[in-house]
Design goal:
Blueprint (H helix, E strand, L loop, with lengths): L7 E5 L4 H12 L3 E6 L2 H13 L4 E5 L5 H15 L4 E4 L20 H29 L3 E6 L11 H23 L4 E7 L27 H17 L3 H14 L3 E3 L6 H11 L8 H6 L8
Parallel strand pairs: 1-2, 1-4, 2-3, 4-5, 5-6, 6-7
Helix pairs in contact: 1-7, 3-4, 4-5
This protein binds nicotinamide-adenine-dinucleotide.
């Protein structure tokens, strides 16, 4: 897809972080936007900022984990603009999901599996189900971008989040081949960001009541850890707007695997080498960092 002027993009998780960075980059490329997010106040403020700068934008409060809500988003997008050309399934949640001692894949609370897979994986599935057929049917060039993570291709486990992101990578590869098989004018990419300056670590702010283990918020010591992680991300992460520009270029160049940070591909090679050589799984860089005696980042 080469031509962005006047084309329509739908972005989930558009109120903040990477989704907001994409919205800014796409708007400046001349696109009309459908911005979706669960956090209504932040969403309205973001939409108003782009409208004030002269861009054509609608905002739709959406819970990507709920297929009915995503279908409503698709209906609103088509009602407003007639067609959709770019779909970014980007909304996601991360950070700690349970009490200390409950972070293993064997003892994480079932509600945590439901919440993280519901948003990170099923949110992408719902986006594909509600949009792709109509994107193919209109016949104009288009593109789907699914946000995974480097943790969706690196080794090391990384708990429920890592499972959800590996699943998004696999799903996106299936999407790519499915679209090629149909000779659709729609391309596909999987975005695998490294550290980006966003609020992902405090995603529990959007966790539904019925998916909190025992109906309780995370304990204060965990909230403090996540606040510290958020500070580290905001201070050291790539600006989300830069990620938006990287995504725009990837769509233009029809690149499928989209890393944001140079060198991110190296741990993929290490993981594959261990698989081919019959070695134990590589610890992901995050796990290696946690294994340092002083727990410091490296
Ligand atoms: N920040 C990073 O370093 C990083 C690295 C790799 C991948 N990612 C991925 O990038 C994507 C965007 O995250 P971010 O880092 O910008 O975090 P963020 O928290 O700043 O933005 C995520 C947005 O998604 C929204 N959201 C959460 N649950 C939702 C739901 N059920 N329905 C609709 N919207 C919902 C939030 O309100 C928020 O606006 C996620 O998929 C995340 O896993 C982030």
């Amino acid at each position: 897809m080469q031509d962005f002027e006047g084309r329509v993009a739908v972005i989930t998780g558009a109120a903040s972080g990477i989704g907001w960075g994409m919205a800014q980059a796409f708007a400046d490329a001349g696109m009309k936007l459908v911005m979706a997010d669960i956090e209504v106040q932040t969403l309205e403020a973001a939409g108003a900022e782009l409208r004030a700068a002269g861009h054509e934008v609608i905002t739709v409060q959406t819970d990507v984990a709920d297929p009915t809500s995503v279908q409503r988003l698709a209906d609103a997008a088509h009602e407003a603009f007639g067609k959709v050309h770019v779909l970014c399934n980007n909304a996601g949640v991360g950070g700690a999901t349970g009490k200390p001692g409950q972070w293993g894949v064997w003892n994480s609370p079932p509600e945590s599996w439901q919440w993280v897979l519901g948003v990170n994986l099923m949110g992408v599935v719902h986006g594909l189900q509600s949009f792709v057929d109509r994107m193919i049917a209109h016949g104009e060039p288009g593109h789907v971008v699914n946000t995974s993570s480097v943790l969706g291709v690196w080794g090391g486990g990384n708990g429920i989040y890592g499972v959800s992101k590996h699943a998004v990578t696999a799903l996106s590869e299936g999407l790519y081949h499915g679209l090629k098989g149909q000779q659709a004018a729609i391309g596909a990419s999987v975005l695998m960001p490294g550290l980006v300056a966003t609020r992902i670590n405090t995603a529990a702010r959007n966790r539904p009541e019925h998916l909190k283990p025992d109906g309780q918020d995370l304990p204060p010591e965990v909230m403090a850890m996540m606040a510290a992680a958020e500070k580290r991300y905001l201070e050291n992460g790539m600006p989300p707007r830069q990620v938006g520009e990287i995504v725009l270029n990837a769509i233009r160049e029809e690149r499928f695997y989209v890393f944001t940070h140079p060198g991110s591909e190296k741990p993929v090679e290490e993981r594959m080498r261990a698989i081919i050589d019959g070695q134990p799984p590589t610890p992901g860089p995050q796990m290696r960092r946690l294994a340092q005696p002083d727990g410091q980042q490296r």
